[in-house]
Every structure is written in C-alpha cells, then in structure tokens.
Amino acid sequence: MKNLLFVDDEPNFLEAMQRLLHRHRHKWQVFLAGSVQEALQLIKGNSFDVILSDYQMPDRSGFDLLTALQDDRGTRAIPVIILTGSEEKHIKRKALEYGATDLLNKPVDYDDLIARITSAIRLKTYQDEVLEQNHTLEKRVQERTAELEFLHYDLIWRLAKAGELRNEDTGNHVMRVAQYSRQLAIALGLSKKETDLIFYTAPLHDLGKIGVPDKILLKNGKLNAEEWAIMTRHCQLGASILLEKPKGLALLEAESQFGPGSFNIDDEIKNTAATIALTHHEKWDGSGYPRGLAGSDIPLAGRIVAFADVYDALRSKRPYKRVLSREETWSIIENGVGSHFDPDIFEKIKDKNDTLEKILNAMH
Fold this sequence. Notes:
- The structure is a single chain.
- By secondary structure, this protein is α/β, with parallel strands linked by helices.
- The protein has two domains: about 1-135, Response regulator (Rossmann fold); about 165-360, Hypothetical protein af1432 (Orthogonal Bundle), CATH 1.10.3210.
- The chain is about 55% helix and about 5% strand.
- It is built from 16 helices and five strands.
- The chain has helices at about 10-20, 35-45, 60-70, 90-100, 110-165, 175-185, 190-200, 215, 225-230, 235-245, 245-255, 265-280, 300-315, 325-335, 345-350, 355-360, and strands spanning about 1-5, 30-35, 50-55, 80-85, 100-105.
- The relative contact order is 0.07.
C-alpha cells in the first residue's frame, strides 16, 4: 500500500481528490491536509510515497512545504507534485528549483493525475531501492573495515608477542602493559580514541629488543657499561622499525595501481607506537634514556607506558631479579614519583592498585 498526501486549503478540492482516487483504494491510501502545518504534522507520523501540494495557500505556500521537506534528510527524497491554477510560467521553474518532482495544473484531469502519481511512485520506488542498496553496501563496508581493523591490531599484538618469546620469564608482559596502560589512560580522563590508541600500541614498547643479543637480554645478573649501552638502543631500534618503510613495501607501492602511499598503515597508530617505543624509558627528572627528556617534554603516552612497564617488571620474575611483593612494588613506585614518574599520573592512579593487581593475576 502506497501513501499519498494531498495538501490544499480548499476542503472541496481535497474531497474531490479523495473521490477521484477511491477506485485505487486497494493500492493507494489517501491522506488530506488543509495547510502546510497540518501536512508537516502528518509527515512526522507517517511515511509518504508522494505528496501533492497546492502552490498558493493563505499561511504557508507549497514552496514553504518543499523547503521544509528539503531541510530534513528523512523527507527530501519524497516526490512532490505542485498543484496550481496559475498560468504563470515561472512557477514551474521555481517549483523545480525548490525540489518539486513535477507540476500539475488545476483543474486536475483524472488521467493526467493518475499518470503523474504513478510516475512519482515509480520514482520513489527506484529511490528506495537505491537507498537500500547503498545502506547494504555501507553496512558491508563497515563490517569489512571492522574486520580489517581487528586484523590490523591482531597483527600488532602478534608481532609484540613474537618479540617477547625470546624471554620466557616475561610471558604476557606486553599484554599486561597494554591492559595497565588502558586503565591509566581512563583514570587520566583521556578520550576513548586516545585510550584505545595507547592500549593497542603499548604492546610494541619493547619491539626493539628483537635486536638485542641474547647474551645481554637474558643475562643473569647486572649488565656492564658496554652491555647497558647496547640494551638502551632498543628504544631507538623499536621506533626505527615502526617508522622506516621497508624497501619491499616501496616496491609493492610502485607496482600498485593506487600509487605511492597506498600501503601506509594509519600514521596515528604508527606514530603513537613509535613514540611509546622511543620514550617509555625516559624519566620525569630527565635521567632516563635515550634522549634524557624531562617533565612534560616526555609524550604522555610514553609516561603512561613507563609506569605500566615498571609496575609489571617489579611484579614479575626477571633473569636478574625476584618477584617483588605488591607492597614492595608500590613503595618503590611512590619513591619514584617526581624523579622517575609523572606526579600527576601517580595522583590519578594511586587508588588503582587493586585494578592493576587483578590484571596481573588474570594474565600471569
């Protein structure tokens, strides 16, 4: 059943239209409105396939109705036929400019009326089919985008996990750091987008350790000066891995129909991951590495992951240390506020000890 709406300030004309279309009642339901305001009220509660409106009415004209329909995304696709008894040629041009589908002169010829309505309904049907196809296509694109995004982050985390396999004692460390970092970001009031960005990229903070020799990475004891210098390079190496474009990728781009840059991952993701890798060993007082940054010069993502990384390292076994208790860990962290850690971060998360502990227990 198709819904038709007639809008006219003449009750006799509306009644005549209803009588004329009575024989089509099995396929068309006719609604009547005596003014533009009444029509707009009906449109709010019903879905119309065609609107036929008088051009000239006392309060608001058919052009006012067209303007209102065009201003609403939900109604602008409804075909509107303007009815007029005027012979002025400019009216049709103006009606089309306002968005009308057609113009019909009064007095209305029955056969002409039926033909115009049928044509408008056919147009509306085609428009609805296109909208439905676009909606289906958009939904498929959204689903595919979500799948690709999931795959993207899945690969990031698998890469982070692969880098961790060389040291069995740190099992799930990068995953726990991601979870801690997420909780810290939430406590700091970061937006969902910022929180998710840190959460998804934090696992890559130690990616550069791939390039650290086993004899140093797995040494059961304190590193000497030379070994320590090599160990500290993992920050720059991790950032370099994330930021430098492999030659093979450049070759693929050159051969791609889409041209240079077509295989770039999201710069925001890549840059955040590189920032974390480079700065998560910087300290608030400037005594960290590799650049000796201090205070707010250290990117917030780096400061957050620095806290999460140290917390997990203290609460986990390493070749060079035992597992510290919850109390010992928190005491060390408190003592490091203002020197190692951002005081503002500590202030915002000092009551999150239980939350971090739950993550630790769940992921060990």
